[in-house]
Design goal:
By secondary structure, this protein is of the alpha/beta class. The chain contains 14 helices and 8 strands. Strand 3, helix 4 and strand 4 form a beta-alpha-beta unit. The N and C termini lie far apart (about 60 Å).
Amino acid sequence: MENKKEMRTWLDDLNLSHPLVIAGPCSAETEEQVLKIAHELKGTDVSYFRAGIWKPRTRPGMFEGVGALGLKWLQKVKEETGMKICTEVANAAHVKLALEHDVDMLWIGARSTVSPFIMQEIADALEGTDKPVLVKNPVNPDLSLWLGGIERIYKSGVKNIGAIHRGFSTYEKTKYRNIPEWQLAIEFQNRFPDIPLINDPSHITGNRDMIFDVSQTALDLNFDGLMIETHYDPENAWSDAAQQVTPSSLIEIMKDLKIRKESDTEEEYNRTLNNLRTQIDVIDNQIIELLGKRMKSADGIGLLKKQKNVSVLQSKRWNEILGKMVWEGEQRGLSEEFILKMFKAIHQESINHQEKIIKG
């Protein structure tokens, strides 16, 4: 993609004194619901009012949105509050209807981004529009697939492009609904620093109580904005009730978030330092999670050894691991001394786990 600087123009043109904020209900349920939420968000830091009109659901029989009728409700939001409006489009027909109803910004969901065929159809329907178009990451952690979708939109003549980081599906059970895989988002920023990147803490967490922490991490990593699902009665929302916050809670979140502003050399130093430290925090958490998984595997080995009456220490296997890790570490600029100390500590913890199981 050439002339990537053009992609940030639409965001710069908004002249915001704070990160971009996109908020509104997961799903437009009724006209009354949409307008009530919009009026409660009017005059806040919210830049765009969002509402899902078409909802791609995992299984049939779930609420799949009110359809095109909701576009008229969004038009009323714009008329009554003056806020810009946005919604998700999942195919060419959605694009046509959204543009006909003068929706100010469109986003393409994770289930659409995963298919190059769908992305091409949407790109063709968007050809030449000056509306900002945001592309969510695909459900699987595939940076090339995400970038490929953005490139298809760009090649259709759309210059006002952005990306949404909403986390990635995983079979493993974690505290997140969709694991953030922050390193992948950081890699996206490093490769395309001029494409605005928005964080979606609602879909990452699936839990309103975690929205603030994920939002703060995103801002510390220099994300350009947030998309937060907001409902005046989240407990009774027709979809994704657990991850939506009330308008008053959103206002508090916006108030409490620390925004790292760039002003002078000292500020730039502190901002860059904080960004790097946040990256280290993310990696440290990943290391702890991986070590926890490693020890669970060690527990399994301990059970097997107990059943077969095999000794805990297997010197041949241990020396093979150590030699391999020293070599792997050297390829990444890590000293032999550091690798030996680290893996000896890990190995000792593994032995402790196995001995506890065998003696238990």
